Amino acid sequence: MRTNAWFLGILSFALSVAASNAETPLFDREVVPTLYKLGCSSGLCHGSFAGKGGFRLSLFGANPEADYQEVRGAFGRRLDPIFAENSLFLLKPTGSVSHGGSMRLVKGSEEYKLLRDWIAAGAPYKSGAQEKVTSVRVEPTQFIAHEANPTALKVFAKLESGKELEVTRFARFDVFDSTIAEADEKGKVLGRRSGDTHILAHYAGQIGFTYALVPQASPKNLKFTDEKLSDSIDRAIAKKQRTLNIVPTPVADDLTFLRRIHVDVIGQLPTADEIHKFLADKSPDKRAKAIDALLAHPLHSAVCATKLCDITGADNRVLYDQAVCKTHDWYRNKLAANWPWDKIVLGVLTGTAADGRSLEDLNAEIKRIAEERKIKESKAVTKKTEKKSADDAPREESAEKPWETGYALRNSLDIFFDNNKFRVQAGPAKGKIDPQPIALHVATAFLGVRLECAECHKHPHDRWTQEDFFGFTLSFAYVNRGVDPILKKKKVNWVGLHVTEEPLSHFTEMIEGKSIAPGVLGGRKLDFKPGDDPRLEVWKWMVGPDNPYFARSIVNRVWSYYFGKGLIDPVDSLAAGNPPSHPEVLDELVRDFVEHKYDLRRLHRRILNTVTYQRGWETNETNSKDERNYSHRLLRRMSAEQVVDAVAQATGTAVNLSPVYNGDPNRPFQRSIEFPLSRPGGADSYLLKIFDKPQRTQSCDCERAETPNLSQALYFYNDGALIAKITEKTGRLTKLLASKADDAKVLEELYLNTLSRFPTNDEKVLGLSHLKVAHSRDEGFEDLFWSFLNRREFLVHH
Amino acid sequence: MNKKMGCHGFNRRDLLGLGMVGLSSLTLPALLRAEREARAAAARLPKAKNVIFIWQQGGPPHQDMWDMKPDAPDGVRGEFNPIATNLPGYKVCELMPHLSRQIHRLCVVRGVNHYIPDHNPASMFMLGSGNPPSQSMKYPSWSAVVKKEMPSILGLPSTVAVPTEPSEGPGAGFLGSAYQSFALQSDPNDSSFQVRAMTLPPGIDRERFDRRQSLLRESDRSFERLIDRPDLLTSIDQNYQDAHQIILSPRMNAAFQIDQEPGRLRDRYGRTKIGQRFLMARRLIEAGVRFVTVNEPFGWDTHQDNFSRLRTNLPVVDQGVSALIEDLATRGMLDDTLVMMFGEFGRTPRINDKAGRDHWAQAMSIMLAGGGVPAGLIYGATDRIGAFVTDNSHSPADFATTIYSLLGIDPNKRYPTPSGQDVPIVSGGTPIAAIMG
């Protein structure tokens, strides 16, 4: 019986395939997207790695050929071409027979008819063949979503030939924030509450998007003022605010501005002197001048170097202290010289121990190292006996700044590849360089792209496949440590990171077992000769004019640093499914950045000079809930390093941080932002820890938290260490009390040095009256100083 | 703190789907019935008052611990032998001899599973009260819900993390950072262990402390010109209030004095990071803390070298957890204190070429004890290679519903989110009757 049905099935298929006509639904472009739209191929249903209920589809319909085999498989029991409606393929999702995934398909719906017609036509594999879908776009590109009157979206698929097809009925719509707008399966959108959100349209593995704006009621008592907006970025942001009826807060006053740029650009509070000077300056461009001065400040490059250490994994648990210091020094050196971003990344990606030096230079270096070692060994003997006294001696600062000499002057940062996380941890290849974590790290740090998903399957929010992932990984498989064989042939015995002729690893694609060649994301294979560095080819691809990630990623990161939120957010999720909140702003910044040869300082300067950056934190009833449209400054907790430095600066005490594993105890630094280690020792390391300094263990920007916690409150409220800083003999308060008899003057100095402003009249009265009830002048001022450090205004960057 | 977006493209629609998959029957009445049952279960008197939650970050290998597969083929079976336990017929890994004698107090759940073999979203799933991770929403962790729902004692934070909350989880999620646990920051096994700023610093007496406090209260007018006070400020305010009460109450500080414990008991827990963290957890519960999260010092993400890493780590866990269970039982605390131990997923049946096991979400093992869960119950089973659940399969939401019901917390209770949605504590779970007891 069973055999008969099976036989009949095959026979009728054979007949009906021949009979299929032009109206037969295309399998790859219509049937598979429909299954995706219905949710059948999602990760928790049949798209899961093992399938569900013995039926497995490729995740999100990434592989129509495999899906075809599966649907037609199981001896044809899923399809009944004669009585199409009796096919298990239709009975299951309509809930006519028991289905673990509930009712997905309504009998008689368009989707139902499509699947039925396809089965009735003999379930052929009819495809667009040469006409692969290259991209998807949605019309309109931005629209106002009304509460009663729906907007109908249209989705167009672009084919390789350049032809476009409307595919609205096959697309799956996904509203990012469905409390703002809602889309039905036909692409009709209704607004639900005021705000703006993007809407994605998925089709055939590609993603298009549009923006739905739902304006709030026009403000009653507020008017949009005619601000002078000279930068097109400001104008684009203001335009959207107007559409949404969000009235922005005016620019902040001078002192708020001054404190903000100091904390942001160099990680420090402005000094009392700087405050006086800025207020005295009456020139109209004084803000722009202040910005320029800070961008040229030595600590600005330390701030950026710390950020780059965060994103490139300079953790002193997987790298030696010395290596982390060299990494920070190298970045700081390049940033201070304002090296173009593409050149910095070239140095990181293509690092070698030889660093492009000539044979003579390398030989001289070998000689020098040997001599140094000799001297060190002879010193080590005498040092042992002297060790104790050296520890007791006060820290001696060497005159030489390590970020201006030695390793920091090199062209490339080969230390990046020394990270212990970039090694095979076990098995026969233990200790060898493992290209996989390198590729993941490079993609996240320099492209803002997360490839983790593509390690196992096609990326759901993006276009990456396993082949992309392994091809990209292989591009990093041609480096090794040890004696450089190419230099050895030239009679130079050079040891360290070098390029190899053969890859250290091989990969095959999991499902079909194809062997994979080195490539870049997007599939292009690299063209290089043995001995060439494929990493250089990767870099060329990154900086190529068509690369949609490289410049966008850093521009978005810099923006996010200043606003606490990326135009694309999170910043390490540049994906087709995660469009920017203000595409025209990002495009303009990227255009300018690339046009000016990846000039970082210019990028920082432009952002800092915008009205958008300089707005006040105060809110009005139209913008108090806004977090996406830059209508007011969003309050943020100061970062770990900012807190440590602000406390040190306010109290006039030294930052206490020290190396942990074989670091240089005499390393010169004044501020915590200059201290390279992710997990330093020393008394202030506790403060860094409770304020969530990232330990650089994950390649994720989410490691740096900015949330308040109880330990932070306890520290400021009650920790003996803070009391000690306040009362320190050589600290600010002791000195002020000794030098100034006028209490009002002392009070003013303390205000300037903690809150970066003058006390109000009320505050003066309150402060002076507290001194009267205190047991002594010292005690009274200690209490006042303590209370300033404990104000929200001190801790919250505004 | 932004976490990675989910790997498998889940969204709200999928979320609804999951609930339905878990229910297996699809009708609305069934859904309503499940909701009713859950509510009824929660309405019963809570069995558990306290929780000690041991988080095994990285995904522990179920088949090398609680779900041994001695008959599986080479390349799957693993290097360890099963040993008999005090529950006839049930065997565990030879590296867990102490726990093998505690099975009469444990409930091992082998049927909970999900579909996300990726750390961050899977951690969001298992730490975020069994809610599937979402791009636009962070669901509150177990401890955040407990902090919100259960009464606390003045001067004692109701939730504490030893030493910190899992960084890969959602934290307090949309409830806001005031619902985070108090993190000790330092390790109770360190000779210099100290939780800082618990008592008044030298030179500050109670009178001066009060004077400073009122000075701060009167003078701090920061950010008054905001229409809505953002979460950042309300959390800081809350933390200051809590800090004030903690400093004035001797209770919290007394709980941290781990050196008051007899040396023999400290040895029984093990003079290891994890051992002393467990002992600290017990002291905290004793003092009145409702929920202690113990974060393990080692990762379980054994892609490489699975077996030698387990040889090092598992005996330490075995000693510490068994000591904790025994100690709680001896003190009569196990009846109303629930101990739960799990990670974000299990590990692959197949052993890879680096002697490791990779991520595997379709099977995992959860250890429970006390708090009213049946003792000596091995619930759920997997196939012969430990790949798929063959018996009593449950979603993380089912599991979360069960745990909250045991605590007397209504899992269907809805919270408003900052964006104005009403979201239940757990979406779409059904309590697991066998564990509800």
Topology:
The complex is a heterodimer of chains A (798) and B (437).
Chain A: H1 2-19, H2 27-37, H3 64-72, H4 88-91, H5 110-120, E1 133-139, E2 142-144, E3 151-152, E4 154-159, E5 164-166, E6 172-175, E7 181-183, E8 188-191, E9 195-203, E10 206-214, H6 232-243, H7 254-266, H8 272-280, H9 286-295, H10 298-311, H11 321-336, H12 341-349, H13 359-392, H14 435-447, H15 466-474, E11 479-480, H16 485-489, E12 498-499, H17 534-542, H18 550-563, H19 583-595, H20 600-608, H21 611-614, E13 636-637, H22 640-651, H23 685-690, H24 710-718, H25 720-727, H26 732-739, H27 743-754, H28 761-773, H29 777-789, H30 792-795, E14 796-797
Parallel strand pairs in A: 2-10
Antiparallel strand pairs in A: 1-4, 3-8, 4-5, 6-9, 7-8, 9-10, 11-12, 13-14
Helix pairs in contact in A: 2-5, 6-19, 7-9, 9-20, 10-11, 14-15, 18-19, 18-20, 27-29, 28-29
Chain B: H1 12-23, H2 28-43, E1 50-55, E2 82-84, E3 91-93, H3 97-100, E4 106-109, H4 119-127, H5 142-149, E5 159-162, E6 182-183, H6 206-219, H7 231-248, H8 250-255, H9 263-269, H10 273-287, E7 291-295, H11 306-330, E8 337-342, E9 346-351, E10 357-360, E11 366-369, E12 377-379, E13 381-382, E14 389-391, H12 396-406, E15 414-416, E16 422-424, H13 433-436
Parallel strand pairs in B: 1-7, 1-8, 4-12, 5-6, 5-7
Antiparallel strand pairs in B: 2-3, 4-11, 8-11, 9-10, 13-14, 15-16
Structure in a nutshell:
The complex is a heterodimer of chains A (798) and B (437). With 798 residues, chain A is α+β, with helices and mostly antiparallel strands.
List keywords for this structure.
heterodimer, A: 798 residues, alpha+beta, three-stranded antiparallel sheet, 30 helices, 41% helix, B: 437 residues, alpha/beta, eight-stranded mixed sheet, 13 helices, 16 strands, globular, disordered N terminus
